[in-house]
Specification:
Shape: globular
Largest sheet: 4 strands, antiparallel
Structural class: alpha+beta
Number of strands: 4
Order of helices and strands: EHHEEEH
Number of helices: 3
Helix content: 25-40%
Radius of gyration: 13 Å
Distance between the termini: 25 Å
Strand content: 15-25%
Length: 106
């Protein structure tokens, strides 16, 4: 499975805000995507990506582009829309993100 991680931009941010998890997952992912978009404007280390399969938006993730004080990178949020869960998109997105981080930061 191939997914593409596209930066959240003027063209796709609104569509990203429509992504939702299943009601029973709200305790795991309680903050809506719009919260992460807003927070990224004040936390310089946050990078936002929209997760696409072909041209379909299936999810969203946040990662920190800088090392923390313990030399770790962070992935504060990853979510796959409730309509697209269970299809392998989350696993594919994590593999793609790890590759991106290896190329960009190591």
């Amino acid at each position: 499975m191939v997914v593409v991680l596209k930066p959240v931009s003027n063209e796709n941010w609104c569509e990203c805000t429509q992504l939702k998890v299943k009601p029973e997952q709200l305790n795991i992912f309680p903050a809506p995507v719009v919260y992460w978009i807003a927070e990224s404007k004040y936390v310089d280390d946050f990078e936002l990506r929209a997760i696409y399969s072909e041209e379909v938006l299936v999810g969203f993730l946040v990662f920190c582009a800088k090392l923390d004080k313990d030399d770790n990178y962070w992935i504060p949020a990853i979510m796959i829309d409730e309509k697209h869960q269970g299809k392998g998109y989350g696993r594919a997105a994590m593999k793609t993100l790890i590759q991106l981080m290896r190329i960009s930061f190591f």
